[in-house]
Amino acid sequence: MIVMFMIFVAIQHHRHIKQENDYFHELVFLAKDFELNIHYQTEKPESDQLSPTRLTEELLSRWESVAAAFEDISYPPAEAVERNDWVEVERAWIETLTAYDDIYEASDKTDLIHPRSIKNYIFSNNLSDRDNLKDYLKEESHE
Q1: Burial class (CB in 10 A: 0-12, 13-18, 19+), 7
Q2: Dihedral of CA 107/110/111/116: which sign?
Q3: Element (H or E) spanning 39, and its range?
Q4: pTM: predicted TM-score of the whole model, two decimal places
Q5: Whether residue 18 has pLDDT greater than 50
Q6: Rounded-to-integer distance, Cα 27 and Cα 16, Å
């Protein structure tokens, strides 16, 4: 009976550690993707917080300019950004890119910008010479 109890406790402990590791990995991926700072709380990992940096603000600004230039690209909910709810911001990114990718794949592709070009611009500030994303963004900034 004691052995069974010890096995049960070990399994529960392993599950708890796995949940903490999964949570930590999610924070790290979000921080990397959105250029965020992580504020660690070693006693309470669930209290770790993400906060935007100057690079995050620049990324969001590029995303906003793309959303203004393309009606099929959505900017994340302002409340999510204000609350530092980066899981929601990431969800919004995945949804908008998936929807745009579907539109792109269903089109003849001549009048649309490749989804990868949009992603590269937003997340890496990389404007490709292969398409005219730069022209779309210039047009939007002059309106």
Answers
A1: exposed
A2: positive
A3: strand 36-39
A4: 0.77
A5: no
A6: 17
Taking Cα atoms as reference points, which of 79, 50, 81, 51 lies closest to residue 63?
81
Task: Give kind and range of the element (H or E) at residue 128.
Answer: none
> Is the distance from CB of 58 to CB of 125 less than 8 angstroms?
yes
Cα–Cα distance measured from residue 11 to residue 31, given in angstroms and rounded to the nearest whole number: 30
As a whole-number percent, the residues of the chain with pLDDT over 70 amount to: 73
Question: Which DSSP string corresponds to 102-127?
Answer: HHHHHS-SSSS--HHHHHHHHHH---
The tokens for 117 are 């070009």
Instruction: Decide: 62 and 54 in contact? Cβ < 8 Å.
Output: no
